[in-house]
Amino acid sequence: MLLKLLGRFLRPHWPLLVGVVVFQLAQALLSLWLPTLNADITDNGIAKGDTNYIVWVGAGMLGVTLVQVACSITAVYFGAKVAMRVGRDLRGSIFQKVGEFSEREVSKFGAPSLITRNTNDVQQVQMLVLMTCTLLVSAPILAIGGIILAMQQDIQLSWLIAVSVPILLVAVGLIISRMVPLFRKMQERIDRVNRVLREQLTGIRVVRAFVREDIESGRFQKANADVTDTALRAGRLFALMFPIVMLVLNVSSVAVIWFGGFRIQDGSMQIGTLTAFLQYLMQILMAVMMATFMAVLVPRAAVCADRIGEVLGTESSVRIPESPITELDAHGTLEFVDVGFSYPGAEQPVLSDVTFLAKAGQTTAIIGSTGSGKTTLVNLIPRLFDATSGIVLVDGVDVAELDPDLLWSRIGLVPQKPYLFSGTVASNLRYGKPDATDEELWQALEIAQARDFVQAMGEKLDAPIAQGGTNVSGGQRQRLAIARALVKRPEIYVFDDSFSALDTATDARLRHALSRQVSDATMIVVAQRVSTIVDADQIIVLEDGRVVGRGTHDELLQSNETYAEIVSSQLTAEEAA
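Above: the chain sequence. Below: its structure as tokens.
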């Protein structure tokens, strides 16, 4: 998966990669040439006392070194640009892919894990790309070229290379083999830390209300300690690697000087040749050490690449049609025909054989006990899920055949848990219609019964809203979410228990304003309170995912036992009448 992922995201940046390869190649070849020049100075210049030769060759070595430095800096610059762009493209692709997911896929991965994959996991792959561009070209050239040139200098000392390099590779391989499972475990435990922290921040009021601070603190400390323990174990192995490399490096250097000294003593080897051989051995072992560093990054990056690939390779259960319908003639008709829905692996369907028609200008209410499938039903309208049987029609066309943008433009959804984005009142209200005027915003606030408290804010439409709308009350948050849908002016309004935080008087005023101002739209209202839906044109009664009643309040009160029980549990006989 790592190679496949890198191949896909490196391909668009091949010009920069060519630059990296060229400059790394130049830098490596110059590095291999320098020991030869050094040997020439030692054997020809110093031995003969030729000062001019030493100066000119030394000046040449200095020039080569400066060119080598320039090549190295340029290669690192290009490599850094490639790595940053790959990270940017990866994050963008993951974000776009997650945006296409239905609720099913988001629930499968979990929000904390998706956040980790788009941040920490991408960062690990990005770091590998950077180090690859910095080391991958020069390291093998230095190793292979160093071996060839060292053998040219003195073949009898080459056995030291044949011994030291395999020892180094075996030692490093054993360490890396133990680090791979630790890296996989580390990423999973980082997911867990994110999940626990997210739960505690989101549910801080519940934690304090039930005096669970100590227990939640313990949960976080346990998750944090698990990450720390895994990181320490991996760090100890990593720390063991470099002493082993340096041990092999230094022992090899001593061995070259030891055995080379005897060869110089008997006249079969010159000092310059020994110096060059020692430098080539250092280059070989340094190249192996650089490859070792790469090998440390590869296992963790491979684990992260698998996790990223898992997201990018997951297809949304809500598929976009190949030839979507981009135009509709009618306005606002919604129809369910024998609709059923089951979650994967569930023993029983959530919805079965749901059929009803909601026309423009009418209010269709959906009521039922907790768990009867009301929210699942309304989530099928904007295709947050797709029906597993039957069809959902908007203006006579199956929603699965519609262009998603066209479908969503026809629907104004106010979810059960309204969410406001960080910004201002105006930026939240314009979320569905960026070009809405201030007059349109105030009109929507008026209908949603939110004008008074917005005017009471010091900056009015420019008043700040915290992430999630945590700086306003639950009722104010619901009314702002309703106003946001009203600004959009869609043909179909879907209110999923959107009046639950309002008092009865505000609820009544809001419904009255809606009936006057958006009378030409189709309204789907999911509610728990009977008082919210008594004036609906038709009421759909759900029980265990099936439609057990359909009609007006008066009709159902007389003919439907389930509805009568719901009414009797909330209203007195006089209020019900």
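The chain has 21 helices and twelve strands.
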